């Protein structure tokens, strides 16, 4: 029995790289923080970031935005989703996902998840047929990519478009193809707890020039859409510039300046996250009581957080496990709590649309625990964290 206590913080990020701080200071010295406030011949940090992110992602177009949630809203609207339209989405995701659907007047149709936290493809097929929805907002929640071939086959047969929420899968791949390159558009977040940190921020990517022209006008480009780093040709704006309402959701030069050096570090950081993830996962697998989601061979993950289930626990047992882990410095999130505390991922708490019955998802969430793995943790920290969880999960059971 370890009496050791973990002293780290699950919400402590690494500092912003020095190079990024210097770039930010240079922007502040210039006074030109608005993305379109450029001198002649100057490209500006935001446009440069768009070009670099599009190249890194392997998409034709990229629009930098004020947040991941704004990227989703804008993507949905640019893809034609409007008042009263049904939108299929994961029953287990973060609040900005159903929130974005509601913000464009859409009606979420929640699809079950399976034990491995991926969308249940059979339920997707059934609900697509029942609802007639023309759009799936696929949330790669907590980085668990589903069988993308199976999802895209259902999309093809049922005739709906796919928009990907890659807030947790920036850099992840399915069979070598980056997440975000399957659907008509993809949304990324650069909010503090994601894979790059600008406080707030996001990207919308796509290969569709008309969709991206609509998105650019929606984002609030005024008449400066020619000042974008990875935007479509001017001819695609002819209709969009008169038809799309400005929603002012631009990214400024300051955030772009601190993101560009972080993009250059992303691949290295992904490898670091995966080391942390594998260390915790290997530790947790020592307990017969704990089930870690299966990671399919086809997936290249980004292990920036870890989830596990303790299926034998009842509600009281889950609470005891949380308390004991917390006494040892390990803060667990538990998605089974009916009164959401510290999370906004329970479909029952999204009361601005009609409640839906999701027995499979509820059963999975009832014993599902979750932890962030910030890069300030060392592999040794991760070994200790896993030991603490394993010992306490075994204690709770006996
Ligand atoms: C963080 C997050 C988003 C976007 O969030 P913002 O805070 O608006 O950038 C979208 N989907 C999921 C699953 C997320 O976790």
Write a short abstract of this structure.
The protein is of the alpha/beta class and 398 residues long. It has helices at 18-30, 45-57, 68-78, 96-103, 121-131, 148-158, 209-218, 237-243, 253-284, 315-327, 359-366, 379-397; strands at 61-65, 86-90, 107-111, 135-139, 161-165, 173-174, 177-178, 185-189, 202-206, 299-300, 305-309, 333-334, 368-372.
Describe this structure as you would to a colleague:
- This protein is of the alpha/beta class.
- It folds into two domains: 18-260, Aspartate Aminotransferase, domain 2 (3-Layer(aba) Sandwich), CATH 3.40.640.10; 265-397, Alpha-Beta Complex (Aspartate Aminotransferase, domain 1).
- 39% of the residues lie in helices and 13% in strands.
- The protein is built from twelve helices and 13 strands.
- It has helices at 18-30, 45-57, 68-78, 96-103, 121-131, 148-158, 209-218, 237-243, 253-284, 315-327, 359-366, 379-397; strands spanning 61-65, 86-90, 107-111, 135-139, 161-165, 173-174, 177-178, 185-189, 202-206, 299-300, 305-309, 333-334, 368-372.
- It has a seven-stranded mixed β-sheet, sandwiched between helices.
- The longest helix is centred in the C-terminal third of the chain and has 32 residues, at 253-284.
- The protein is globular and about 65 Å long.
- The protein starts with 17 loop residues before the first helix and ends with a helix.
- It binds pyridoxal-5'-phosphate.
- The site of pyridoxal-5'-phosphate has 16 residues, from helix 3 and helix 4.
- It holds the Pfam family DegT_DnrJ_EryC1.
- This is DegT/DnrJ/EryC1/StrS family aminotransferase.
- InterPro entries: DegT/StrS_aminotransferase (IPR000653), PyrdxlP-dep_Trfase (IPR015424), PyrdxlP-dep_Trfase_major (IPR015421), PyrdxlP-dep_Trfase_small (IPR015422).
- GO terms for molecular function: transaminase activity.
